[in-house]
Structure formats: structure tokens, C-alpha cells
Amino acid sequence: MNKVRCKACGRGWTFGKALLSSMKVGGKKECPHCGEEHYSTKRSYQHSGLLAVSAFFVFMFLIETFQMRLTSALFFAVFLLLIVLFVQPLMIHLSDEEVLHTE
After folding, report:
1. Is the pTM of this model over 0.70?
2. Which residues, including other chains, have CB under 8 Å from residue 85's CB and lie 6 or more apart?
3. Which residues cross the membrane (predicted)?
């Protein structure tokens, strides 16, 4: 299991802090222990995108395969969203530099 660790102090983040941090699309992620600012790596963004696209295709495949009704499809969509939200913090990798604006 990948635990989010601060690059400065080396201490691990709690799952709750990593979950809240993973909901921020861009910007700084502050270490709860030492206050050092970090950014998500390019690899984190790639894994997040792959996870989201995979969840969408699984959703569409199962909706078509089982011909789900709207209420069932919405329930399943919420279920998939929750799974994605709780898997997301496991994919966070931190860097000292912001990768979104570097070219």
C-alpha cells in the first residue's frame, strides 16, 4: 500500500488527510506535520486520469450489458464514484516542484 510521505520530514499522512488532499485537483498540498508544501507528480495525475476513465468505461459497459434502469444506473454511478474517491489517495505521489505549469 502506497502511503503518502512528506519529502521534507518523511512522516506519513493519515488516510483522511490523503483523501482530502487528493480531492484538490491542483495546487499545493501541505504536510500536516511540518507544513512543507508539495505538489502531485505527473505520475499521480496520469494514474488519476486512468482511474477515472476506467471507472467511466466500466460504468458504460455494465449499463449496456445489463440494460439497467435509470435509478439502478444512478445508484451504481454513486457506488463507482465512492470507490474511485477511496482508491485515489493510494495513488498520490508527491514532488517539491509543480508539474502542471512546467513545460
Report:
1. yes
2. 19, 22, 23
3. 70-92
Distances (CA, A) of 40 to 13, 17, 24, 100: 14, 14, 10, 9
SS3 category, 95: strand
Structure confidence by residue, pLDDT tens digits, 56-75? 999 999 999 999 898 999 99
Direct distance between the N- and C-terminal alpha carbons of the chain, in angstroms, rounded to an integer: 31
Query: Is 60 within 8 Å of 32 (Cβ atoms)?
Result: no
- Residue matched to cell numbers 482530502: 20
DSSP letter for 100, please: S
> Domain-by-domain residue ranges, the chain?
1-39, 41-102
Q: Is pLDDT above 70 for 19?
A: yes
